[in-house]
């Protein structure tokens, strides 16, 4: 029996107008404009949020630049570490509130959002550990005479983080961690669909002792993100989101040669061999795509099942999918909530209609959920398409919804070629009990992550990122902080 307690409505929402956080102060947009953020499960208004524009971005970047030369810029790694450890404690203490903000803003079940507590604390503590490990090297050289050479590692400067809407508080932590550890400063632009938990996170940063101006939150639409990308006072951009927007960010960053890391879309293959443990592979294959209503960049949206077990596997997968509870995100039994917005729902439904027109058939689902319990919300049935060819639109394009395309295969060589026949390369899954098959697939798949007999596992110490149109740069792992540091060579002639 699920005894999970649903927390009360977050106190943040007692203030119907939510301002940005710049220089340690909550401030309205200079234009005075605001935009709505609504609960996608009910359509209810949550808050009117400051609609920041280019002038607000400029203000935040200047504040962040000034903070680099203040107490923060003179702070040793050990003190940054102490602040980050306090922040980790505060995030954990307030995580139920943060998770509820995400549930109300995103529509993800509270039973899912609250599970991020362990990861959020672990990420902040991992990066806190890295704050004291930043070091240069003493390097030998071949210069004539008595000459010493060494390197210094220095913070790159002002970082712009542009976040997606599908995991709001998790993304805030993931973007802020290396910034704080490296001694950089941050202007974060959360997605306009889900801005609330980022604002609360910024308040917790101040409470933990992060100096004013180090963490700034600018809420707004795409024009604010575009202004950040092009701003000459920004030294690095860390972006997570769609491939199309990622391309625009690269173009905007080029004139000022900003350092950029981008984690973009995916169309990840999940491959089940004949010897797989079906009791584990069936539910995992379903939740690899249906978790978070399919709104995960590395979702396993292309399912390849060996022809010898395909009939049994698909029957079991369809039966499992029909048991998934879709509904009220505040119901402890709910597994899948609505998608984030009306436009996103219409986009997904358009993909589903197009799949049928191209000859695919819905084995399960295939429509919007409506009626009692779904009125006012953007609910879509978990959907499995059969009779899918590799050239169909749903087999090639990222849908970002609870839609699975299924295929059969016969040989390793065949499935590797088909799995890699995509512009994306973010995640992938392999289900087999054969060690040789596992290793051959892990080496052969072109993707940033290969999960064998599991899916969607993440850890602060293990890098995550993509190949090809899924982006470049890695988050997490021991080298992530290098993306936020400059290397300076120092030469000292002694004679």
Automatic annotation (TrEMBL):
SUPFAM superfamilies hit by this protein: ALDH-like
InterPro entries given in the database record: Ald_DH/histidinol_DH (IPR016161), Ald_DH_C (IPR016163), Ald_DH_CS_CYS (IPR016160), Ald_DH_CS_GLU (IPR029510), Ald_DH_N (IPR016162), Aldehyde_DH_dom (IPR015590)
GO-annotated molecular function: oxidoreductase activity, acting on the aldehyde or oxo group of donors, NAD or NADP as acceptor
Pfam families: Aldedh
Residue positions of the active site: 263
Superkingdom in the source lineage: Bacteria
Keywords, ordered alphabetically: Oxidoreductase
Residue stretches making up the Aldehyde dehydrogenase domain: 33-490
Assigned protein family: Belongs to the aldehyde dehydrogenase family.
Record-given protein name: Aldehyde dehydrogenase domain-containing protein
């Amino acid at each position: 029996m699920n005894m999970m307690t649903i927390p009360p409505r977050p106190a943040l929402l007692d203030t119907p107008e939510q301002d940005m956080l710049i220089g340690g102060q909550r401030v309205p947009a200079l234009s005075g404009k605001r935009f709505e953020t609504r609960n996608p499960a009910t359509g209810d208004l949550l808050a009117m949020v400051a609609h920041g524009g280019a002038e607000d971005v400029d203000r935040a970047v200047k504040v962040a630049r000034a903070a680099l030369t203040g107490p923060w810029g003179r702070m040793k790694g050990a003190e940054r570490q102490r602040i980050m450890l306090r922040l980790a404690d505060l995030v954990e203490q307030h995580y139920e509130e943060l998770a509820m903000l995400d549930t109300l803003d995103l529509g993800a079940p509270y039973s899912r959002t609250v599970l991020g507590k362990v990861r959020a604390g672990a990420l902040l503590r991992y990066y806190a550990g890295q704050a004291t490990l930043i070091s240069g090297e003493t390097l030998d050289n071949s210069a004539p005479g008595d000459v010493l050479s060494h390197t210094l590692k220095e913070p790159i400067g002002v970082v712009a983080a542009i976040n997606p809407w599908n995991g709001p508080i998790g993304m805030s932590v993931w973007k802020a961690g290396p910034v704080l550890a490296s001694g950089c400063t941050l202007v974060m632009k959360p997605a306009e669909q889900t801005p609330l938990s980022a604002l609360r996170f910024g308040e917790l940063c101040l409470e933990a002792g992060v100096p004013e101006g180090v963490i700034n939150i600018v809420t707004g639409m795409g024009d604010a993100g575009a202004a950040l990308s092009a701003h000459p006072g920004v030294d690095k951009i860390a972006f997570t989101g769609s491939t199309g927007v990622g391309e625009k960010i690269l173009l905007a960053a080029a004139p000022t040669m900003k350092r950029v890391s981008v984690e973009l879309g995916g169309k990840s293959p999940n491959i089940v061999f004949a010897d797989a443990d079906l009791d584990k592979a069936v539910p995992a294959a379903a939740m690899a795509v249906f978790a978070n209503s399919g709104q995960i960049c590395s979702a396993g949206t292309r399912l390849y099942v060996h022809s010898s077990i395909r009939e049994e596997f698909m029957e079991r997968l369809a039966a499992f999918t029909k048991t998934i509870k879709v509904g009220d995100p505040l119901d402890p039994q709910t597994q899948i909530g609505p998608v984030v917005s009306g436009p996103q729902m219409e986009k997904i439904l358009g993909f589903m209609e197009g799949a049928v027109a191209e000859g695919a058939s819905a084995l399960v689902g295939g429509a919007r959920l409506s009626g009692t319990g779904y009125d006012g919300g953007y609910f879509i049935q978990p959907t499995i398409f059969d009779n899918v060819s590799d050239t169909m639109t749903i087999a090639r394009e990222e849908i970002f919804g609870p839609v699975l395309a299924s295929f059969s295969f016969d040989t390793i060589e065949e499935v590797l070629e088909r799995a890699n026949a995509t512009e994306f390369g973010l995640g992938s899954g392999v289900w087999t009990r054969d060690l040789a098959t596992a290793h051959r697939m892990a080496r052969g798949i072109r993707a940033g992550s290969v999960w064998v007999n599991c899916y969607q596992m993440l850890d602060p110490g293990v890098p995550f990122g993509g190949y090809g149109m899924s982006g470049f740069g890695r988050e997490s792992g021991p080298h992530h902080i290098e993306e936020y540091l400059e290397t300076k060579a120092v030469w000292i002639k002694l004679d």
